[in-house]
Structures are given as structure tokens and as C-alpha cells.
Amino acid sequence: MSNQRRFRELTRVLEDTSDELDVPASKYQDAKSRYQAVGEFLGEDPRLADYDPLVYPQGSFALGTATRPINGGEYDVDSVFLLRAPPAGLVPKELKELVGDRLLSPSSRYREMIEPREGGRRCWTIQYTDTSHFHLDVLPAIPDVEALSLDALTANVKNEWIKDSIRITDSMTPEYATGWPPLSSLKNDPTRSNPSGYGKFFRERMEVQLEQLKSSLAMTKRAAEVSEIEDFEVRTPLQRLVQLLKRHRDVNFGDDDDRPISVIITTLAAQAYDNESDLGVAMLNVVPKMRSWIEDRQGVLWVPNPVNPLENFADKWEEEPRKAEVFDAWLRQVEHEHTYLLTESGFDKVGAVITNAYGERPANAAMKKLAKRTAGYASVPTLLVPAKSSVATPIVNTPTVRSQPWGN
């Protein structure tokens, strides 16, 4: 098998693995109906209705990067409940209690589903008891009216993203019961966020590929217009890459409380992505560049929110240094494994590598498809054979810019 064909097959293996991790379109529709129903229920409360409420998704279901839960676990759906015209002087504690009082009211259909009863640090969680295997986080928020006047934001972020900035509740802030934390350009402010703007950022990073894929799907459906194709009906190489990276994290560090969080993985991958049209090339190009997007701000490691540089996604790394150490260990493991897969001997053991990386079920499914495609070739990759650790010759040229430890 030629080197070029090996690389094409490696890309197919990664794509097939991603397909096995993907969430059915029906689940995206189900998630949408769940958070819309909650938004309508909250908006029917007279105490909330006058404040122009709006509910919208955030997180992996909003970005199209959700993955099937491992071992029959639950789908984690995140939503924002925004009061677009809040009363003057509303403080975080009051905002959260307004939402909580409605969800826990005697007439609430969600009353017995709230876990924990007192709410979480930032949001209220609805634990559905049906067969959907969903839990829905509802994050109370108000507009961040200061955002468009903050130099720290406007100097680096598009106005169309900034206008979606919000203030969110966080019971761990000292001002929780009295007001909102004051502005600081050096300290992370956990009450300033912008999930809607982040969604626009993420979409822009992959817009070329997204529109091409939607156009192709529209042609396949013949009568469908591109505008009729939902974003969640297709997957770009960036979305597939994020799915693979998150599942790699789950398989290798799933029981570790300090495991890398999804928003950091997603942000670094999106920043390093350059609209590659091929998953194999995206993996090759993006992974080595991810750590270069981690900043050192006066000795504090930052993964800034690209639409709100005042929010540090890695804010817990300073308080709990092991989280940074685990992230570094995870990323080094990913770098090593995917460099190894680009070698001839690595590709010959691709079944073992992807099994260790992404789990047995998706790996077996991907390898069965590979076996059918490579039937008749003298050299066929082996399933579940431990990979060698020796250095071999890459199938294709790896990027000249290699990852460097942050802070250097």
C-alpha cells in the first residue's frame, strides 16, 4: 500500500471513528425541544415575563461537537436563560433565586427534577427521569451592558460578538449577594461570559467547510435549499476533531477529577484550525499547534475566551496546579499517538492505537470498515496489537512548527 493511500485510509479510519461517536440528529432536536420548553415555562412566570426572557443553547450541543455518552451515560445539555431587560440593581443572588423559585414552585413540572435542590455554583440542573438520558443545565444571565465600552474587549473582539456578552451567576464570588465583580484586566471574572458570541466565533473558524458540506447535502437532497439544512446535519473536520479529542480525554482521563475540560480543548483546537478540508490533515496540523494558544499573563496561565478575553477558561489551573499538569500530560499523549499513526509501523497498528485512544466499540467498527476497504492488499493493519514505541518514518511530512511548552 502506498504512503498516499495509507494516509487516505488513516483519514477514513478517523472519520469512521468520529461517526461512531456522533450524536444522532434526533438527539439534537430533542435537546432543542427540552430547553425551549423550559424557557417557555420560565417565561410564563409573571415575575420573569416582564424582563423579556430568552433561552438559547450553549456548549457542545450548540457547537455540534457533542458525543455519545460512554457506557450509556447521560447527555449534558447546557442552556442560558437570559433576562434581556432586567430590573435595575438586580444582583446575582436575586437573579438565580428568581429562576430557582419558578423551577421549584409547587406547580412546577420540574420541581422533583432539580438536582441539587439548592442549585449549583452557577446554574440549575434539571435531571430528566425518562428514557432520553438528558440532564439540562439552566444558567441565569443578564446582558453585560458594559461590554461594548470595555477597551479590553473592543480592542480584540468583533462588535457583533461583543453585543452578545452576558453576566452570569456565580455563588463563589464575594459580591454574589451584593452586586457584580468590578472590572479587572488581569484577574479572571467568572461572571462575564459570552456563549452566543463564542458560538459565532466557532462557526466562523469552520465556516468555509460548513457551507460546503451543507451545499453538498442540499444537492443530495435535491429539493432542499442550503438555508433549509440545519448546522447539526453535517460535521466539519473541526467538529470531528473536537469530538475525537474529547473522547480521547474521556477514555484516558475520564475518572480523573482534574481531567481537561471540554471548553479548553474546543477553544485551542478551533484557534489552531485553518479550515482544513480533510480530517487527517486537520489532525496533523492542529494538534501540534494547540498549546501555542495558551498564554502566560504575568506568571498565570490563560486560555482566554476568544470573545471575552477577561474570561480565563483555565482559571482553576492557578488554584489547582495539577489540572495544568494533567492537561499537559494529555496533550503530549495525543501528540505522540497521532505522530506515531503517521508512520508506516504506526499505521500497521492503527487498530491498537485508536482502541486505546477512543475505546473499543468505535475502534472495532472503524476497523471492520477498513478491513473491507483494504481486502486484497498484502499489508493490512492489525487490530489490537500493542503499538511500538520506536521512532519510524512518517507517511507524510509533519508540520515544521512543533508544539512548545507554555511559558517559554
Automatic annotation (TrEMBL):
The keyword S-adenosyl-L-methionine does not apply. It catalyses: GTP + ATP = 3',3'-cGAMP + 2 diphosphate. The keyword Transferase applies. GO terms for biological process: defense response to virus. GO terms for molecular function: nucleotidyltransferase activity. Keywords: Antiviral defense, ATP-binding, Magnesium, Metal-binding, Nucleotide metabolism, Nucleotide-binding, Nucleotidyltransferase, Transferase. Residues 56-138 form the Cyclic GMP-AMP synthase DncV-like nucleotidyltransferase domain. This is Cyclic GMP-AMP synthase. It comes from Stieleria varia.
